[in-house]
Amino acid sequence: MTRTGVAALGAALLLTGCAGGGGGDAGAVPETATGSLEHLAAEVRCEPDMQTDADELRQAICENDDGKFVLATFATDRGQREWLNQAKDYGGSYLVGAKWVAVGEEEVVTALRGRLGGTVEEGTSHHSGNSGGGGDEATHSGHRSG
To answer: Tens digit of pLDDT for each residue in 73-88?
Structure first.
């Protein structure tokens, strides 16, 4: 993944609020969707705002009734895994499919999984406590409950 791709993801995660707290059971999960970024966006009823349009990575910001999220497609499985390995440092919840990823708050990713299938993976947030989100504030390093 290029530094530009990592930076774009970081900015997009700030827009989506990083990681959320809550969530619930996704219920029945459909077979994992496949297709272009535009096809996946249509499946979840969003109009993609394209941020990166390169041969190896296409990335857009989407918003639908479930919330705001990032949708990315990849030319190769290896490219997807490298992107995920770097991107997880930004926190967030990741819905992972066949050469695609949706990134957003836990509640949004759970809702998207009900339409796109896939597997949920969690990122590790290393931001300061002032940017909102960040997972469970009671147990997240640097935060105190009370």
So the answer is: 999 999 999 999 999 8
